[in-house]
Amino acid sequence: MIEYLINTPVASLIFIFTLVTSIYAFNDPSLYGKFMLHPYSVYRRSNVYTLITSGLIHGSWMHLIFNMFTFYFFAFNLEATVGSLRFGLIYFLGLILSDIPSVIKHKDDFHYHSLGASGAISAVLFSYILFYPLNTLMIFPLPIPIWSALFGVLYLLYSYYMSKNSRDNINHDAHLFGAITGIIITILVVPGIVPHFLSAITGRFGG
């Protein structure tokens, strides 16, 4: 654990803090009222801080475990690749900007709330994909490993479709716009990432 804190301090602190606050919220439901994103309030410039705090709590153990496993597999490698400052920018801008479309979409829905770090983790995942497009991932329920770039395309298509048609109470807008934010921020803060990504793809196929 000390090695993680030394080499990837931002990812380590986010990981620990998110676990602690989420588990604490499971045992103190009053924290949800303080931390959850409430677009109706945020649009009216109240409780704006929940754009960040909503990413520190989760709705269930399964929600928390899935997000933290995804974070663990990609965030530490990404911070080691881009450095702590740029990783922090990708994560926290992903967390905030992924929620802006939800704030606009649900600005008049007093009863709508949202929580979880999925938008920020999507930003991390798609930043990782730009660096390692041909690394293979095992994604449930697919029975075979697939390239991360291919997974990224499928993820974007699925998130877009579900954001338009979903009734499952999952904030697919945050997933979609978190992914887009991760791509844009990485392009802005890492010069040469687009040629690197294209070179990796074309090199694999002899282009």
TrEMBL record:
Its record classes its membrane topology as: Multi-pass membrane protein
Give the record's GO CC terms.
Answer: membrane
Domain of life of the source = Bacteria
Q: Name one Pfam family in it.
A: Rhomboid
InterPro entries for the chain = Peptidase_S54_rhomboid_dom, Rhomboid-like_sf, Rhomboid_protease_S54
Residue ranges annotated for the Peptidase S54 rhomboid domain, each copy included? 46-190
What protein family does this chain belong to? Belongs to the peptidase S54 family.
Write the protein's name: Membrane associated rhomboid family serine protease
Which species is the source of this protein? Pedobacter cryoconitis
